[in-house]
Amino acid sequence: RRVHGTNELADVVVARSNAKKDFGVVLVPEGLVANIPEVRALIDEIGAISIARGGAALSEEDVKGHLSPWAFALLSSLPEFIKKELLMERQSDTRVQLSQIETERLLAELVEAELDRRKKAGTYKGKYSPVCSFLGYQARGATPSNFDCELGYALGQTAAHLANNNLTGYLATATGLGKSAEHWHVGGLPLTSLLVADEIKGITGKPKIPSARVELGGKVYHALADARPIWAAEEMYENPGPVQYAGPTADARPLFLKISDEVEYFQSMETVQRHLDIIREACRPGCPSQLLSVAAQSMSTLTNIIALFNGEPGSAK
User: Fold this and answer.
1) How far apart are CA 208 and CA 260, in angstroms?
2) How far apart are the first and last CA of the chain?
3) Hey, CA dihedral for 90, 92, 96, 101, is it positive or negative?
């Protein structure tokens, strides 16, 4: 039984062991398991069964006759602790509790099995003793940095202005965070504009705000991909210790903000609205038919691209 990435992790462990470095840290994102295509399809099938039963916890017997043959075969091949976590009671939004699925433990066991195989083949002689730790609350419970405080003040003041102007149901936002605070742009977004209706196996779920996906073509991901082989082989310590409130690192920004290719959100929104106003003004009754035809074709192409970007099936019309 192998999961994509197991051999890659085992290769890193072996390479570091050969360099007398039988230690290291692997960061595993919470939603990793849901992005493995086969497991994602399994989760969706289990989700449809769970929704039909009110989101209650299920047993292997409960789903046996309802899963497709390949999905049940995959479920049966997983360790018992992963089975139980996939079948546990759903969240209020009907989604699986990803934070409760011990993906790191699954990877640790699979890597251990791969390393045992290599030991028997004589290609690995190091020591491997994985220790798994869930950092869900520790990561968000640290002392705030100067940047965190500035962002908190900015969002708080923005929220106060929105409420004072009777703009309820809005999300306070700030953009341009890679720059100093005086160059940030703040505003409000209607929460309803962020909602989508989830659908699993033809069953429409509750409205939710979808999670943002990693932009594989963006500068941030390319920077990570370029640095990953170096981090795998070397130790690159950049943290000076506890949160700093004075000195050269006190006002440091997160790395992804420094290299992000973020487009100024509100300026882009104004640009789009300005272009729409120009089109609306030009395509009034009585405008030349050739102009109307060009505008219609161009807008149709744009809406098709937007539909593809949003992952909508078929083409926009």
Assistant:
1) 26
2) 45
3) negative
Pick the closest to residue 188 from 162, 154, 156, 157 (CA basis): 162
Q: What is the mean pLDDT of the chain?
A: 83
* Most confident of the following: 150-159, 178-187, 258-267: 150-159
| Digit-coded pLDDT (tens) for 134-151 | 877 776 777 888 999 999
Q: What is the pTM of this model?
A: 0.69
Whole-angstrom distance, CA of residue 29 vs CA of residue 5: 13
Cα→Cα distances 146→138, 181, 253, Å: 19, 11, 9
Please state the three-class secondary structure of the chain as a single string.
CCCCCHHHHHHHHHHHHHCCCCCCCCCCCCCHHHHCHHHHHHHHHHHHHHHHCCCCCCCHHHHHCCCCHHHHHHHHHCCHHHHHHHHCCCCCCCCCCHHHCCHHHHHHHHHHHHHHHHHHHCCCCCCCCCCCCCCCCCCCCCCCCHHHHHHHHHHHHHHHHHHHCCCCCEEEEEECCCCCHHHCEEEEEEHHHHCEEEEECCEEEEEECCCCCCCCCCHHHHHHHHHHHHHHHCCCCCCCCCCCCCCCCCCCCCHHHHHCCCCCHHHHHHHHHHHHHHHHHHCCCCCCHHHHHHHHHHHHHHHHHHHHHCCCCCCCC
268-298: pLDDT as tens digits: 878 898 999 999 999 999 888 999 999 999 9
Q: Are 158 and 188 in contact (CB under 8 A)?
A: yes
